[in-house]
Amino acid sequence: MKIAILAPTIAPLTSVGGLGDVMQDLPKFLKDAGNEVITITFNHENKISSLPHEKKRTLGIKYQGTEIKFDVIETKHPFTGVKIVAFSNEEFNQLDTWDPIKYEVFADLVVDYLSEFDDIDCISGHDWPCGLAIAKCHEKLDIPTTITIHNEAFKGPIVEYKGHVMTFLELGIYFSDAFNTVSPTHAEEIKSIDFIKEQSKTKPFHGIINGIDLNSYDPIHIVDKMLKLTDGKLNPRMYGFVRGYSAEDAHVVKPKIKLSWFYNSKNLKNYIENWNNMDKSAISGTDVEVYGDLSGDIEIPLIGFVGRGTYQKGFSIMFEAFPEILEEYDIRIVMLSKGECDIEEGMKDLAESYSGKVISLIGYCPPLASLIFAGSDWTVIPSVWEPCGLVQMESMAYCTPVIAREVGGLKDTIIPLHYDPYNNPNFDVATGVLFKHYDKYGLKWGIEHAITWTFYKLKDICLFIRYKQTECPESPYDKQAPLSIMMKNCYHHTVKNLSWQNNDSVNKYKAIFGGSIYHHYK
Predict the structure, then answer these.
(1) DSSP assignment of 335-379
(2) SUPFAM superfamilies per the record (predicted)?
(3) Which of 119, 165, 232, 283 has the fewest C-beta atoms lying within 10 Å of its C-beta?
(4) Tens-digit pLDDT profile for residues 506-520
(5) Which residues, in sequence order, are bridge partners of residue 381?
(6) Highest CATH level, class, for 2-211+502-521
(7) Is the peptide bond before 255 cis (omega within 30 degrees of 0)?
(8) For the whole model, what pTM was predicted?
(9) In terms of CATH architecture, what is 214-498?
């Protein structure tokens, strides 16, 4: 098939969040599966035009009576080699990535650009910014279309098209020939919404889990990845201990990374200072503000958080639960986020209130995310809702188990430690802890369950350990200790079940494209 993918953002060029990561990886693996793929986007902040590119032609479209000209530039993704077509206009390039005006214009640009092709089999739009474009492509080009819902909560503005007054996302769903969301559980969760329930009766609708690229997230390549994300300008080995590791030696390497970077915060702060002073015009990222400090010995557990600074990610219960957890247990917390002002203030206050126990990093810095996954003992994802989530997959790829709420894609991707390990000691398969209720008590239980059974109850684990005919662990990082076993589980689960290479999601996307073609022409 020849597939045109409409992408609001693409990692690592114009990306903040998981959507951009999927828009990097999905086209690559569709191409590897034998499809011809074009990714179409905007030249946000001139990030696409900073790559070697070719100007193919100029398109002129009218917006509210004014003609606006856009260069059509063509390049290849620097990591995947997939063809990228970007619309470039100096004024529009500088508008906010999510400005609705951009995507009203984008719809007409996509139609104009694709009207010269007669061999496109399917047009695939992603999230609300592409909804109006999908509607117009369906109506004006007579080409099968699909739309993928990455986050149903964000629908875009309400507009009128062909007599329908709907949000961008709803228009995309209504006019598409098939649609999907990004995990099976989330597909069931949003089927209760009347509009989606109605549309799912008339056309194919499925939940297709996202994935991660093993070549990018294998911890053996962490140094190369961090270098690549800084355009080769910051070598992490010049600041603290870090080296590639595997599932077999994660229990040895990860605590050393924790001690070097987080319990010796001077190394981390030096790295961030140089990141802030670096020219970032050719990479994705912002400056990072540092609040707080960490100190401690190697066996004090470190909880990491990486995510956008939005209500969805569970900040309200983190800000309630973390102070109580910090008072009751000897633990440390590192947070990396950027977003809403009140959330950033909450992160700052938490770090300043618990000196030596919390460090808050306010900014968007992809290489630091890798470092937090590698150095943390656990990561936490207490989302209100989570259509799929990539953070838990990235964390587990780095051999770090996850404390998460049992919702959406988190439920689909994490194998939970049993709530009663005395009677059901499933340490040999578990990759995290899941809790149900969105409140501070649920999150506190999740954290307590995680650290209790991997740090504080090592002697109580001996019944399980003896059954396995090994010695009782004396340290959380002993090879036979529960945390070390779960580290291995995390990596192998990610490889086998969560990677684009092995999780069969690319074939499911091909199937939904096929379903859209059948529905369009039947």
Answers:
(1) EEE-B-HHHHHHHHHHHHHSTBTEEEEES--HHHHHHHHHH-SEE
(2) UDP-Glycosyltransferase/glycogen phosphorylase (SSF53756)
(3) 119
(4) 999 999 999 999 999
(5) 404
(6) alpha beta
(7) no
(8) 0.95
(9) 3-Layer(aba) Sandwich (3.40)
